[in-house]
């Protein structure tokens, strides 16, 4: 029975692409937050192959599972384009991403 369950589960299961150390990612919101926050990949956890250590914009080091991290196109935690497009980010605010469209919370 377990072999049959494993077979059907694995039909659609896909592994996420590994993240590179130093890469910029977005972390899934935690708790009551709605914002995906930027973080930098510090290292991969050797004992847990799907986990990564990431450093947030505030300097905290956290461990997150790969499925809670999304690779971004930005090259730094404080991207100049973000500051131009969303001035509240430069002032320490957040950008809410809803249905793929960024919405500045100060508007």
Description:
The chain has helices at 2-12, 80-85, 87-90; strands at residues 24-27, 37-44, 51-56, 61-65, 69-71, 95-98, 101-104. The protein has one domain (18-104): SH3 type barrels (Roll), CATH 2.30.30.140. The model is unreliable at 84-91 and 95-103 (pLDDT under 50). The strands form two sheets. Strands 4-3-2-1-5 form a five-stranded antiparallel sheet, with no helix packed on it. The protein has a two-stranded antiparallel ribbon with strand order 6-7. With 107 residues, it is of the alpha+beta class. It contains three helices and seven strands; from the N terminus they run αβββββααββ.
Percentage of residues assigned to helices: 10-25%
What is the name of the CATH topology? Answer: SH3 type barrels
Distance between the termini: 55 Å
Rg, rounded, reads 17 Å
CATH class: Mainly Beta
How would you describe the oligomerization state of the chains in this entry? single chain
The gross shape turns out to be elongated
N-to-C series of helices and strands: HEEEEEHHEE
How many strands? 7
Query: Which blocks of ≥5 consecutive residues have pLDDT under 50?
Result: 84-91, 95-103
| Second rung of CATH, namely the architecture | Roll
Number of domains as seen in the coordinates? 1
- Arrangement of strands in the largest sheet: 4-3-2-1-5
Helix run count: 3
Class inferred from helices and paired strands: alpha+beta
What portion of the residues fall into strands of 2 or more residues?
A: 25-35%
Main sheet characteristics? 5 strands, antiparallel
